[in-house]
């Protein structure tokens, strides 16, 4: 499996170009602010043919170049239904962070949604560019945050986590639609259940593994301390109980 990063100009967001091999189809994940040029260079270097843009969530530092790439290659964008409002109106997702994003995109910036948008569902299986993957809904950072679990036939395990997890911390839950307790549940139920060797391909800074975060990430410990162990049938802070 070919996995290459393409760093955006703003906020250090990492887009990913993923393919089963060189000279083949590929998918592009989270093309951020002015990431398209780097994405194109990776596509040309490995002689790839983009077939889809996948979005881990609807924040503008992950979606900014999706319309351009979708138009350039005639391909659809995929996003979870709960984040569709953020894709329609990017600034609605940003709250107090809006001025930082306005500065990053520039005063003359305008937005048009990708021409074709397809909705992702929890548990959905995709096989694009010879890369089988599973979609896991992991809300908390945004209502529609998802993980893309790459089902590599070699036995290696990779998970694209967007802003759900960073090395040593988690993404902010202070933007519209964010919720800290929901984020902790997603960590407990969607990430802590994975083998320690699973590689977490993060959207910012360095990648990590489940084992490293289990040992060192205070939010992983908090998820267990507050919510109990996954699978025990108890959730002491469950508002539905």
UniProtKB/TrEMBL annotation:
Give UniProt keywords alphabetically: Hydrolase, Metal-binding, Zinc
State the source organism's domain of life. Bacteria
Q: Which metal ions or organic cofactors does this protein require, according to UniProt?
A: Zn(2+)
Pfam families membership: Lactamase_B
Record field: transmembrane: none
Give the originating organism.
Promicromonospora alba
Residue ranges of domain Metallo-beta-lactamase in the record: 12-204
What is this protein identified as?
MBL fold metallo-hydrolase
- Which Gene3D superfamilies would you find in this protein's record? Ribonuclease Z/Hydroxyacylglutathione hydrolase-like
């Amino acid at each position: 499996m070919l996995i290459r990063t393409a760093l955006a100009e703003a906020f250090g967001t990492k887009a990913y170009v993923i393919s089963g091999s060189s000279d083949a189809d590929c998918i592009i994940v989270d093309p951020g602010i002015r990431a398209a040029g780097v994405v194109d260079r990776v596509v040309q270097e490995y002689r790839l043919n983009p077939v889809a843009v996948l979005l881990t969530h609807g924040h503008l530092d992950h979606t900014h170049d999706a319309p351009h790439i979708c138009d350039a290659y005639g391909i659809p964008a995929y996003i979870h239904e709960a984040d569709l409002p953020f894709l329609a109106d990017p600034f609605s997702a940003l709250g107090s962070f809006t001025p930082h994003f306005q500065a990053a995109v520039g005063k003359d910036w305008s937005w048009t949604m990708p021409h074709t948008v397809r909705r992702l569902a929890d548990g959905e299986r995709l096989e694009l560019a010879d890369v089988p993957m599973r979609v896991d809904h992991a809300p908390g950072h945004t209502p529609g945050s998802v993980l893309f679990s790459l089902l590599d036939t070699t036995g290696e395990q990779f998970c694209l986590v967007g802003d759900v997890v960073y090395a040593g911390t988690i993404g902010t839950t202070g933007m519209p639609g964010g919720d800290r307790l929901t984020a902790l549940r997603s960590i407990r139920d969607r990430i802590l259940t994975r083998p320690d060797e699973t590689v977490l391909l993060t959207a910012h800074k360095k990648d990590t593994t489940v084992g490293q975060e289990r040992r060192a990430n205070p939010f992983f410990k908090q998820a267990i301390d507050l919510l109990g162990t996954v699978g025990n049938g108890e959730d002491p802070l469950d508002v539905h109980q």
